[in-house]
Design a protein that fits this description.
Largest sheet: 5 strands, antiparallel
Distance between the termini: 28 Å
Helix content: 10-25%
Number of strands: 29
Strand order of the largest sheet: 1-17-20-29-23
Shape: elongated
Radius of gyration: 26 Å
Strand content: 5-15%
Amino acid sequence: MYKKGTNMCIVLAALTLYCFCAGACGGDFDWERFHSSASSARKSSSASSRSSSVSSSSASSRSSSASVAAGPMEMVRIEPGSFVMGSPSGESGRGSDETLHLVTLTKGLYMGKYEVTQAQYQAVMGLNPSYFSGSSRQPASGEVQERRPVEQVSWYDAIVFCNKLSIREGLPPVYSINGITDPAILETANSEAWDTVEADWNAVGYRLPTEAEWEYACRAGTETVYNTGDAISANTGWYTSNSDSKTHEVGKKPPNAWGLYDMHGNVYEWCWDRYGENYYTATGAGTDPRGPSTGSYRVKRGGSWNTGTNIYLRSAYRGIILSYSTPNGSNSSNNDGSYFYPSYRRNGVGLRVARSLSGTVSGGSSSNGGNTGSSASGGNSSNGGTITSSASGSSSSAAAGPMDMVWIEPGSFVMGSPGGESRRRSDETMHLVTLTRGFYRGKYEVTQKLYKELMIMNPSYFYGTGRPPASGEVQEMRPVEQVSWYDAIVFCNKLSIREGLPPVYSINGITNPAVLGAANSEAWNTVEADWNANGYRLPTEAEWEYACRAGTDTVYNTGDAISASTGWYSVNSGSKTHEVGHRDILLPKPPNAWGLYDMHGNVYEWCWDRYGENYYTATGAGTDPRGPSTGSYRVNRGGSWFYGNNGNNAQYVRSASRGGYYNGNSSSYHYYSYFIDGSTYGSDYSYPTMRSASIGIRLARTQ
């Protein structure tokens, strides 16, 4: 690779990446043999790009195609509550096992926004068992093969997948057999051993939802036959009448009211519970039910692409019906119990993952429509790259819940700018940097909604009736600003603790956010980072530029010239911040090549590093640099909505621009800035105590 403007040849470090290979196997294939012989394939997979976006594409309609590849699962936060489970006696297709009863879930959970895709399953398990893969079983026109839901997954497979994904993300595995959580051992267990599998309900790793959790999340506050009403239509889900006898890319139908896609049809989804026809009524299991302790079958929910009637798509349908009433009043039965053995694989059965919440549930919820005492965050969203939203009809959303993250593979790049780059500064000497560890990067800047939910206040200047968002944008989805570097550190630890992850930051060994938030400036100068902890953190300056460039070596990650499509800065911002991931048709702000939005403009983003003008060149810090050990300033990167320095509007939006620079000039480009004590700033505009209407945050995580 030749750096633009130089004669220097840079050889980038080799990357180990995943390749999502599609299987080509029919329904009669010997899957037991395939699973047992796949270990070598699991070790040799690779891919063609450094970043694996959780969801890198978005669109302007709710039924747009969603991109959900490898990386942390996209999850929607569901708050605890009560609801009426089952169906009324007059509901057409009602089963004898659907007696109405009140269920209370005392703990919230995260629910997968989408069914697990073939790409995600391949990345974790090293194989794609799906019947609907290969050249002879192509996806529908305009859809992407690897984004179709994985199927031909047994309940056993689903348990192994959950533990593998948990371990990969540094989360405690939920499932064990005789105390063993190792997926490699679980995969070899026989049926008798699998009958003893246990779940640690306090672990925050990935798991299957309970049957009650599934119905609660599916209904999303509704009491009707489907979560869209009492009648089914082509917009409700994928089933026989509209599926064309195949699965479809996840997220193509509108989500339910809590932001979950494909809860009706496409593929059935395994639940944790053993099936018990009279479990709820006979035991009175109304609080956090998890199914009977014995039984041969496991429950699956939601119907599939080959469901021939609307019976199996209903919100109340329990996966196994011994008898049910048909629309004409006659009775029918379902006697093929083999479909529900946990060892069973079928091309209409997949999975959707869940995660338990950790700690106290607080804030961020929206009222859920009419069920007793319940609430949930989530909601309608048109942006395919979101985690949660409680705002109906927004152009994008990346609010409460587990952060929407993009996986960035390790590698080498040329940091800095060539001598001929316009507005280049003296602290941007070009140098080779190698990052030996991959990391997760926030797809969006942290929103006002998420910050307020966690910190119980919204410090943003652009908040309130006097500073409304641009037309068509949602206030709480604008980036939070007026956040100091200290505030950002406290926020990271709070979010880590809420998600059951180890906090990264400490002062004298103390990680408690309440204590950190009360620390004085002298104590903050001793803050330390545990780089092995996989909680939320700020990126290093090198990580920031690496992720921003996304393989480019131009002035901006979109080329050598800036435009209204590059980012929000003074010529197009209207003197205000804008909703993250903005997708306005007239002023689109697409992500960079690795799926990250707003890396140029909107708000500056704090980095971990202290600022050192000559840090890289004087120390030769080329491998995993984390900034100098001393210094008064902290780096911020990316530019913002506001500029005006010497009439140049794009100087600070450049990929190489190192916010945190101090040159004795009291330039006002940080705008409306003040210190934590309330005093306004002078020329020293990157003290970690400073808050500005131009500075916010974007998070990172170590794998």
